[in-house]
Design brief:
By secondary structure, the chain is mainly β. The protein contains 2 helices and 30 strands.
Length: 365
């Protein structure tokens, strides 16, 4: 693809096995293009196997470059006579005549033209400066098969800068909000998902964007009042509140230390609620009650069994209402909650979902 004197915006595009004289997949001249959530795989050129910039000022945001090749310079990206901005991106496995170092991933003709931040670059030396960059292996799921999603141990998880994503002018999630940051990754999953097992080293709120075109999906999620949407709680403070730790096949639920579990409010108000005990035993059971859901904020769903066993933890509705100080909350207002705990190896995790208080006259579903 070639742009000149333009301001192209490319979101969630995949460029595979293209061949060009300069810029195997994308050549930008004298423009200000923006590439977001896109993957460049196996492209070839003399300069810039993936992207070539000449006298332009493009931005490369949350993109992944892998197995691109150049015969002269810049297996991944080549920049000349312009200024390219690379942020939240992964450049790994790109080459020039069999070499895979830093300059093979990104080549800058002039030192003053580079701007690289919160990115993973093979052979990273630190000479390019910037903030939040790493040279550690991004740990793609299966690079040989072209699966550039991240493994659970990837250093790219929760390591980007959430503030740099452009507005969702195309309304990719169909919610009518075109001012929010681009909300989905290249595969359509939410762009902002917090992994409870990975320390947040990037910049942003509780769900920090990952590096690269894909967002890592956590190995389990939280579903308050599984099977319901909204997740109603009666102000009468009767009965129980069920909370499902919704598993994916990649995670073994026995690794959770049940004695460490507590329900808290995200805003820090109130105390912590521990699981209900019956005859001295914690009210926790195994059951397939819900399907993992990777929505944003207080989005919810009513999907039930998916074939994978979950862990259902029961809390006293009175304890939830009183200890979390919900008496001052307006009925219908979403109440973001955290379930916090530890694995048996001592690792701390935190997953989130929301409750809503019913009107006193409303019986709910």
């Amino acid at each position: 693809m070639y742009t000149a004197d333009g301001n192209a915006l490319l979101i969630s595009c995949t460029f595979i096995n293209n061949l060009g004289s300069e810029g195997g997949a994308f050549l930008d001249t004298r423009g200000n293009s923006t590439l977001v959530n896109s993957a460049f795989i196996g492209n070839r050129a003399s300069k810039g196997g993936g992207v070539r910039n000449w006298s332009a000022r493009p931005s490369v945001i949350n993109c992944t470059f892998s197995k691109n090749r150049a015969s002269q310079t810049g297996g991944g990206i080549h920049d000349e006579l312009g200024r390219i901005r690379v942020v939240n991106s992964i450049l790994w496995g790109n080459s020039v005549r069999g070499a895979f170092g830093e300059s093979e991933q990104i080549h800058f003709a002039r030192p003053e033209t580079f701007d690289v931040n919160h990115s993973c670059v093979q052979g990273w030396t630190g000479a390019l400066g910037g903030q939040g960059n790493t040279g550690n292996d991004p740990l793609f799921l299966d690079v040989e098969e072209g699966d550039l999603r991240l493994r659970p141990e990837s250093p790219c998880i929760d390591a980007g800068d959430s503030s740099v994503l452009p507005p969702d002018v195309a309304d990719l999630d169909g919610d009518g909000d075109t001012t929010e940051p681009v909300p989905v990754a290249i595969d359509g999953l939410p762009r902002f998902m917090n992994d409870p097992f990975t320390p947040d080293v990037g910049i942003g709120s509780s769900a920090i964007v990952d590096m690269g075109a894909y967002e890592y999906a956590p190995v389990f999620t939280l579903d308050v009042q599984p099977g319901r949407c909204p997740n109603w709680l009666s102000p009468r403070r009767r009965g129980t509140v069920n909370v499902a730790i919704v598993a994916t096949p990649e995670f073994e639920l026995w690794r959770i230390n049940l004695a460490s579990l507590a329900l808290t409010r995200v805003d820090g108000r109130g105390g912590a609620v521990t699981p209900l005990k019956r005859r001295g035993r914690m009210a926790v059971r195994f059951a397939d009650v819900a399907t993992p859901f990777f929505g944003n904020g207080c989005d919810c769903h009513d999907l039930r069994a998916d074939g994978t066993v979950d862990r259902v933890v029961t809390f006293s509705a009175r304890d939830v209402f009183d200890l979390l100080e919900l008496g001052s909350i307006e009925p219908g207002a979403p109440i973001p909650l955290h379930l916090v705990g530890q694995l048996i190896d001592g690792s701390v995790f935190e997953v989130s979902d929301c409750l809503q208080l019913q009107e006193r006259s409303h019986r709910g579903p």
